[in-house]
Amino acid sequence: MNQTRVFLLFAWIAVATLLWMEWNKEQTAAHQPAPVATQATTTTGGAAPGAVPNAPTATVAGVPAAPAQPGAAATAATNANANNAVTVTTDTLRVTLDGGNVRNAELLRFPLDAKSGEAGNVKLFDADPAHFYEAQSGWVSNTGAAPDHLSNFVPEGAERNVTLASGADAVRVPFIWTGANGVTIRRTYTFPRGGYAIEVRDEVVNNGAANWQGYVYRQLVRNPPPQKTGYTNPEAFAFHGATWYTPDEKYDRRKYEDFVDDGTLDKESTGGWIALLQHYFFSAWIPGDKDKSKFTLTTTQQNGVTHYVVRALGPGVNVAPGQKAETHARLWVGPKLVSAIEAQNVPGLTRAVDFSRFSIMATLAGWLFFVLSAIHSVVGNWGWSIIGLVILVRALLYPIAAKQFQSMAKMRKLQPRMQQLKERYGDDRQKLQLATMELYKKEKVNPATGCLPLFIQMPIFLALYWMLSESVELRHAPWAFWIDNLSARDPYFILPILNVAIMWATQRLSPMTGMDPTQQKMMQLMPVVIGVTMIFFPAGLVLYWVTNGALGLLQQWWMLKRENALPAKA
Questions:
Q1: What separation in angstroms does the CA of 317 have from each of 50, 54, 143, 288, 381?
Q2: Per-residue pLDDT tens digits for 292-333
Q3: How far apart are CA 564 and CA 570, in angstroms?
Q4: pLDDT tens across 154-166, in order?
Q5: Within a domain: 46
Q6: Domain encompassing residue 258
Q7: Do 375 and 317 belong to one domain?
Q8: Which residue of 29, 45, 76, 570 lies most exposed, with the fewest beta carbons within 10 A?
């Protein structure tokens, strides 16, 4: 198979795929699910310690719909919680919480894009109804009163603005709830220095006269913003929705628009985690690795706006009079920093860095990111790290590329004889094909040798694309010269122009055998077509393509020179 035909095929497939993905994004936006009305339900009767009650669609075992439904009681609870709100500031986060709800979370090390007019830092949680996004946690019980996330957890101290002290490893913020049945629940939030995993520990003390059975629930609730579109915008292709991980069935995910159609999930798990993902950032509840929970998905409606809920119900506790029990979880609020996520030692949590929904591609992208990070630890610059990664990948694939270029060199040498065959047989395609195959056999040329390396390289290149698109480490990272943000487009379009020039030069070295004039004209337009599609791509991606193309051009030129098959005007 002629390499130029293969390149033409892949180029048109790439353009068609980008256009299809853009059309699919528009169709998804046009068919968002209608708001789902819900009614609160409760359960009665006893339950065994640690058991997980059945989960109705709207609520789980008495868990209030989230956010609170309109009404005087809900408004009063919200106002009371506002009076009990505490703002915590560490070196990484500024968080506002009231005991049952983490209402606002600002990532202090991740500024918004000031060049586009966005000031301040990235916010994950936001109590503003227009951007509603909260982490909520409470309790349900069949044997007595229990605090849901709307109940009055009262701060134990009088301080409402808490800051991580200089030299301290963490800051702790305790809240307490006291029930009329003699049960108290002390909830302590622990914010570590330099981290994004908040520990949430609940201690249940039964000072009453009867056993108390309860189940903790933890949920993430969001009114997701409209998803950005555009085939040159990596955020448009990033996954937005709920993900979860169970030791038995591993990683899975669901887009917001599929919440209703695909059911409530109702998946039991020991350990695992639940999360809401977006481009570069995510939030997650991580129960204890021995805790039994039930993971559910649902939607609620607040003033005509649909909110999406991913919830973990459990574990359950059975506390006798005079006894106490304890449960804890971690709440991740932050970026998809692979090193920080790995430090949590949570099975499967690195899959939140959603390189691909397919585990094989995600694993391959993870390996590539490991190499990229290792190079960065030496050179200290993500742009040069990308160049170093491409060099290593090219070196690894050199034996395959050498076979490809040798095949091209032999094909180029045969061009004069191929032209003679065309002139001899004219429009008799059958005889021309037989004569061509006989020539290949005589000269020991296998056209497929030029194609197979491309198929072998494609998974690596696709994994590289998704890895570079999803890596928050490249967000706002400078390279050199005029590139001060690898996650934004080249401001002067120099890299896309270089990419066009490299593709054109590569095309000049590629044999054009077997192509009619129309195909040749299409081939000549491809550098311009691909160059235009890359004008608004993030500079880090274009840098990768430019480096990869330049190395490929150099390899091709050297192999053709060695085989004495350079074109006369190359």
A1: 6, 16, 12, 14, 50
A2: 999 999 998 888 889 999 999 999 999 999 999 999 999 999
A3: 12
A4: 999 888 999 999 9
A5: no
A6: 55-157+173-354
A7: no
A8: 45
